[in-house]
Amino acid sequence: MPPQSVPIQQYLKQSDRLMLALIDPEQLETLEPGLFRFRMQPIKFVTLMLRPVSDIEIWSEQNTVYVHSTACRLEGQPAISDKFSLNLQGHLSSQDGRRGTQLCGQANLKVDVDLPTALRFMPKSVLKATGNGILNGILATMKQRLMRRLVADYRDWAAKQPALSAKVS
Fold first, then answer.
1. DSSP labels for the chain?
2. pTM of this prediction exceeds 0.85
3. What is the pLDDT of residues 30-66, one digit of tens each?
């Protein structure tokens, strides 16, 4: 992370800002502080159009931010939604080192779904490869947004902090 006037650890405590850095604001709804509803882009899976919706909790402890899905469903697919689960677990930590502050993290995403009878006849290898491709695409998008948007948003936020402090005094 590029050095700023305010340490990244202070920025990481801003859960609303972090979620907006990770997820397109049009896909995000704030349910309460630290709890958000994320409506993913529709996913085409063989003959189905799926739109996963997940409630995501975010909180920070010391220099680590944690992200955890708390509920999920599929919009527009009530027959499958009851047999659908999405589990997101992740963390992002700041670590000071010789080369400055670095962000390190990991995210794990797991989806379970009982497919309609017609799709159960497809080879498991095809279903698994398709499902893994979708999950990897979601995680890659989150990583790209994090790397691109978080740095820019942190810079903007840090630049405004001294001005905010001066106005309060």
1. ----SS-HHHHTT-HHHHHHHHS-GGGEEEEETTEEEEEPPPEEETTEEEEEEEEEEEEEETTEEEEEEEEEEEET-HHHHTTEEEEEEEEEEEEEETTEEEEEEEEEEEEEEPPPGGGGGS-HHHHHHHHHHHHHHHHHHHHHHIIIIIHHHHHHHHHHHHHHHHHH-
2. no
3. 999 999 999 988 887 777 788 889 999 999 998 899 9
Degrees, nearest 5: CA angle 115-120-121: 160
pLDDT for 166 beyond 60: no
What was the pLDDT predicted at 56?
95
Task: Report the alpha-carbon angle 89-142-67, nearest 5.
Answer: 25
pLDDT in tens, 115-141: 777 777 778 888 788 778 877 887 888
- Phi and psi dihedrals of 67, rounded to 5? -130, 135
Structure tokens at 106: 């990991």
